[in-house]
Amino acid sequence: MISKPCTVITVIAAVVCLLSIAADAGMVALNSEDRDRPQIWPAMAPGPYAVGYMVKHEYDHTRTFRSKLDYFGKPRQGPIARPLQISVWYPAESSADPEYMKFQEYFHARATETDFTPPTPEQLNIVINGLKHAWPIEFRVEPERRETVRRRIDESLKEEVFAVKNATPAQDSFPLIIHMPGYNGSPSGHSSLFEFLASHGYVVAAVPNMGMYRRNIDNEAASLEVQARDLEFVAAHMSDIPFVNGSRIGTTGMSWGGMSNVLYAARNHLVDAVLTLDGAITMPEELDLIESIAGYSHKSLDAAYMQLLVCPAEAKFRPKDLRFYDSLEFCDAHMIQFAGVDHDAFSCSYLRLRNLSEVDPGRIAYLEEFSREIYRNALSFFDAYLKDDATALETLTSGANSGSQTERQEMIVLRDLKKGMRRPLTRKEFVNIIRTQGAEEASEIYKDYCRTKPQNNLIVSSVIGPVYMNAFESGDLEEALAICELWETALPGERGPLFSKGRIYTRTGETKKAIQCYEKVLRLGGEGRSIEIARERLNELRSEPQPEGSIRIRWLGHASFLMTTAAGMTILTDPIDFKGYSLPEATSADIVTVSHEHVDHNCTQAVSGSPAIFRGTDERCRKVNVIDTSIGDVRLFTVPSFHDPGHHGRNAIFVFEFDGVRIAHLGDIGTVLTDDQIDLIGDVDILMVPVGGQFTIAGSEADIIVDQLNVKRLVLPMHYRTEAFDAMPFTVDPFLTGKESVRKLETNELVLDTVGAAPSREYVVLRY
Asked: Is the backbone peptide bond immediately before 547 cis, with ω within 30 degrees of 0?
């Protein structure tokens, strides 16, 4: 840090330093042709473009900034939507005789940040005079020197800058950089940096740092959310402008804005690069605040990140906490720490004015070089990640983590780089790849993924099985077969993909291939019902075709079953799209039943087509609707019951009759049955019974109901704790304890032959 009194030698050294920096940093040598051309403060060579500047006045009508009625209850005059004044710097067409703006015009924009009424000259003078009065006090200038400093500020404000107001945009499409200033700050605080970036081919759009319902922050916890949405609005609005490339977006944020822009980027995958300028994301109390936001995680940031900050050893007023930077794993992360500067120096236009109060030429030279260092690193960062510039990336990475002395060692005390790792796929993301991009593309992705993570659980039978079944039932047998091949590649010892391939080959008439699949199931060895089924199917394929009269039952999770009659009619019970359960895409049915109106049982909107929907209770579960009707070959009727052991509301038992069987779905029943209920339901062939407890009966009560209804064929347990939904006390296992005829399937589907004598009672667990 430069803090010693200036000497003649110091001044000479500073001049020599500036001359050497000029050659390296691009300071413009003033020749006869450009002697009158404004430069970008502090003496930075502009890029190839002229720079335009405009102010856009927009309203976000999804949010309000003012109340609808005034104090007296009368409608408020003027718009109440959230005002967003967007200051825009952009590459412009060159002009033979440009009318460069005056520095003070950037500060004029403060007059219209919440009220877009054009200000009068008198109003603009009030804004500028107020700032000129306040700045020397902010700069801690001694009272006797303040008027002198104000005269210097006045002269500086009248100087030309590099931008031309409302200049014609250059004919191209440029990456977008969105900026959020510091606490209650305005875009004018970084105008010089934005001119520099625009001259190098970027559109920079900045908004004021405002609260939810007033110009200044009115609630710190809410302001982060509000400002993240402001940035979201700006990105959407600016992306519609012809000279903006909305597919390449970066953000910058100063101080508090250096936390708002992180929150925005962590939620929006359109953002490619995030730059914070001594951002609040490096400060302990502010970190506590952003970490308290529901759903936020430091690890969710995918965009490249650069953190420019005061060296922690010198950050006395705003202590540093690097846990955000340390947490980053899945993005390239750059950090540069500077010595000899303070927090406010990261606002270049503010520093430009503050330097007018300095008396030490060496100190002024140091701070101006600091600003140039900010410009250089910001440009290299955005060039690397918004323009894919390999040279810029090399500039950023050279010297990082090397421990070698830097070119400006006194100023930059640390230059660090963490290369981002590829974010691991989640099972849900991979299933979505299969569904949207197809199994062949998913297979290539899976092979590549296995190179770095050979041990993974992206594919499990309980998840990929339903994906296969969707393709199979939709008739896309080629895709269904590709899914099975992927399934078998991932789980070579599983029987599920072999059974599924056997089903496909049976459908396509390729009997030989189907036989080979079931023979392979037998070669895997073991005992159990699946081995018996494989033998049965082999016998069927080798002899006569499968007899008619079978029904299919698929468990879709929780209390949701999809039943298919022998004639092909489909019945869906208690559709679910909640917690870890969701209906497979394009799930359709002819009949949909809802046992009661709770969110984990009534997601009828997720069902495609135009089914007949039967709701077992009213909206508040206070009464059971009387239903007794027939559709096609299906009869269904309701029997009233209580929900959960505490009798909190009502629940409808649905009884179905088709193909010679009676099926009872108990919904969220909370008690064993009364004699009246037993008489209404009658003897049951297949019982779908909850066993998870707390919200329903548990295993012991379920056993009683099984005997009460004299279940003949199948007991299908449901509504119990699983990995997908762990809110209930019990898994299925306590219910199965001590029972002999138990069959746990590797898939979520079973096929029941309804022709012939009924077998003895069996407990079947379908796998989700």
From this structure: no
**Cα 651 off chain centre by:** 37
CB contact set of 405 (below 8 Å; sequence gap of 6+): none
Give CA separation, 579 vs 575, 727, 768, in Å.
13, 10, 14
Q: What is the distance of C-alpha 331 from the center of its chain?
A: 15
User: Which two structure tokens, joined as six digits, stand for 13?
Assistant: 């050294």
Answer whether 484's CB lies under 8 Å from 501's CB.
yes
- Residue 471 identity (one-letter amino acid): A
- The answer on pLDDT for 437 being more than 80 is yes
CB-CB contact of 642 with 624 (8 Å): no
DSSP result, 376-397: HHHHHHHHHHHS--HHHHHHHH
The 10s digit of each residue's pLDDT in 99-123 is 999 999 999 999 999 999 999 999 9
Q: Which two tokens stand for residue 694?
A: 């707390």
**Number of residues that this document lists for the chain:** 768
The whole-angstrom separation of Cα 696 and Cα 598 is 13
> Distance between alpha carbon 740 and the CA centroid of its chain, in Å?
48
Contact 106, 188 (CB under 8 A): yes
pLDDT of residue 584: 78
What percentage of the chain exceeds 90 in pLDDT?
70
Query: Kind and range of the H or E element at 363?
Result: helix 361-386
Cα three-residue angle 112-116-121, rounded to 5 degrees: 55
DSSP result, 576-645? -EETTEEPPTT-B-SEEEESS--TTT--GGG-BS--EEEESB-TTSSSBPP-EEEETTEEEEEEEEEBTT
State both tokens at 26: 């691009």
Q: What percent of the chain has pLDDT over 70?
A: 92
The Cβ of residue 405 has, within 10 Å, a number of other Cβ atoms equal to 8
The whole-angstrom separation of Cα 265 and Cα 302 is 8
Q: Locate tokens 């299933």: which residue?
A: 431
Query: CA 700 to CA 682: how far, in whole Å?
Result: 21
- Tens digit of each residue's pLDDT (9 = 90 or more) over 543-557: 544 345 688 899 999
Answer yes or no: are the C-beta atoms of 547 and 520 closer than 8 Å: no
Name the pTM for this structure. Answer: 0.61
Q: How far is CA 60 from CA 80, 223, 242, 252, 253, in A?
A: 10, 16, 21, 21, 21
DSSP string covering 7-48, please?
Answer: -HHHHHHHHHHHHHHHHHHTPPP--TTTTTS--BTTTBPP-S
